[in-house]
Design goal:
The chain has two helices and twelve strands. With 178 residues, it is an alpha+beta fold.
Length: 178
Amino acid sequence: MSRIGKYPVSIPSGVDVTIDGAVVTVKGPKGSLTHTVASPITVEKGDEGIAVKRPNDERVAKSLHGLTRTLIANMVEGVTNGYEKKLEIVGTGYRVALKGQELEFALGFSHPVVIAPPEGITFAVEGPTKFSVAGIDKQQVGEVAANIRKVRPPEPYKGKGVRYAGEHVRRKAGKTGK
């Protein structure tokens, strides 16, 4: 039995879960998310919460059991609290500003880099070098944050670039270090 998949997903008050065949829809105070469950896995709504079941102990069913339960738990968490990734910029002259809904970066290029938020994502700027990406879909928040980091990833010699808050960048010695 899957260690994660055997536990039911608890449904907090204010969250409505609808199961229509293989489609699970979760509605909460922050929005609505939908997920289509893979074929051998079944999802049932009970008095304890949402139970994820597998028909047999085949490899595919076992691998999808815990995954499906975690995805549904992430959907419930997203519509109640939401997700947020904090990022920071390190480097002389590097900064970020919020222009309407878009982020405008000065990252040492000859032009400012403007990034527009996709549907369901909001940006917040706490300072000239600190900002955050927020939304209800965990996967989408992580992907947008990774794409922003990809514009100027931290380099190993001076550590300049866009990094996650609290990320440790391994530094290299350079030419003068022995």
